[in-house]
Amino acid sequence: MAMDTGLIFHPYMRPGRTARQTFEWGVQSAVHCDKIGFSSMMISEHASQIWENIPNPELIMAAAALQTNNIKFAPMAHILPHQHPAKLAMMVGWLSQILEGRYFMGIGAGAYPLASYIHGIKNGQDTAFLNEMVRESLFIMEKIWKREPFFYEGKFWSAGFPEEEPAQTEEDEQHMLANYAPYGGSFPEFAVTGFSYNSPSMKLAGERNFKPVSIFSGIDALKKHWETYSEANIKAGFTPDRQRHAVSQTVFCADTDAEAKRLVMEGPIGYCFERYLIPIWRRFGMMDGFAKDAGIDPLKADLEFLVDNVFVVGSPDTIVDKLNTLFAKCGGWGTLQVEAHDYYDDPSPWFNSLELLAKEVAPRVKLPEA
Ligand code: FMN
Question: Which of 130, 143, 78 is closest to 106 using CA atoms?
């Protein structure tokens, strides 16, 4: 089966962009991706980062719902420790009904301690603690979606679902309860983000047979994610399927290699990496994996190194080669989740790149035989 293409929209807007511009760029990107055949658009939720300036991904999805036909949307991710699970369960259930199934749920523990701090969590860097919150939130949301009576007083939250009282007469509808369960009873997929090397999120995804979504952070980390996921998945009695694994990557395609590299180095992607993502990647240790793959000192990993060795940049033929080589090294994945950037001022090179990826690249990239 050929690789699928999706977009992941963090959205890496340069500081100074207004909320209105970011929102407009999100909806415009959704409409374009739907038109060119992208299978999904994932949208981040961030409370703290100016470069990742969407606190409510569902607003863009709702705005795009009536202007798109096929593309599926997912929050990637709703940060479970940051909100009341009952409220979130109803909101996403309702949104999946609005999108009539073109919605899948995405959950995460949260990447930024400052965002956790805003939500009253002081130890936001403690992944084990955040993971415990994720598990309790999930437990409550699943009970809410079931719509069976319960009341639960947990460590972090309490919630319940009331009993529907019987009608007194045939016309009596006053006691009927609204249904905010996912469209059709369940989400088509339930996705979990995984980031760290020994990822607790990938373990959770495997145990629950959720869709694993990794950020590309080097061959070793990616292999380890799949190992952690599939071990837990098999142990829980499921059969791991690489087609369900989505991996987010910086990818840019143009007619020639030289043109693609120039557009990345001199355009919004280069600008974002110089000012935001290279320092962040250093902070989160992501450069170490890339430097190890290339056999260089992590401090020498600059923008040009990333463009040549880590991002997938080039003509359609070059990108097909680079992806097939990566697939051979790490086993491959089902969906390439292309990281979106701020092409608000001039979308044409970006939209052209996405179209080349969907139409000329993806059909030629396949999972290696197991
Ligand atoms: N963290 C956020 O705070 N907001 C996000 O929207 C978000 N999106 C993510 C998308 C992807 C593809 C990945 C891989 C991670 C994302 N994260 C986001 C980070 C997760 O919340 C979380 O820190 C990470 O998945 C924890 O992974 P671990 O269990 O592997 O340590």
Answer: 78
Average pLDDT over residues 87-100: 98
The pick from 195, 202, 225, 251 for probing ligand 1's pocket by mutation, whose C-beta has the most ligand atoms within 8 angstroms, reads 195
Residue 81, ligand 1, Cβ within 6 A: no
CA 159–ligand 1 middle distance (angstroms): 25
Tell me, yes or no, whether 144 lies in a domain. yes
Q: Residue 226: which domain range?
A: 4-163+177-262+311-364
Tell me the CA–centroid distance for residue 195 and ligand 1, in Å: 6
What CATH number does the domain containing 27 carry? 3.20.20.30
Ligand 1 proximity of 45 Cβ (cutoff 6 Å): yes
Please give the pLDDT value at position 370: 67
The residue whose C-alpha atom lies closest to atom 21 belonging to ligand 1 is 110
The rounded mean pLDDT for the chain is 95
pLDDT above 80 (res 369): no
How many domains would you assign to the chain? 1
Q: Is the CB of 108 under 6 A from ligand 1?
A: yes
Indicate whether 62 belongs to any domain.
yes
How far does the centroid of ligand 1 lie from the alpha carbon of residue 105, in Å? Answer: 14
CB-based contact 64:22 (threshold 8 Å): no
Distances (CA, A) of 259 to 57, 263, 265, 307, 312: 33, 6, 10, 12, 14
Torsion sign across C-alpha atoms 92, 95, 101, 106: negative
Beta bridge partners of 5: 336
Q: Residue 250 — φ and ψ, nearest 5°?
A: -90, 115
Cα 34 to Cα 71: distance, rounded to the nearest angstrom: 5
Tens of pLDDT, residue by residue over 225-275, are: 999 999 999 999 999 999 999 999 999 999 999 999 999 999 999 999 999
Counting ligand 1 atoms within 8 A of each CB, the residue from 193, 197, 283 with the most, and so the one to mutate, is 193
ipTM for this model: 0.95
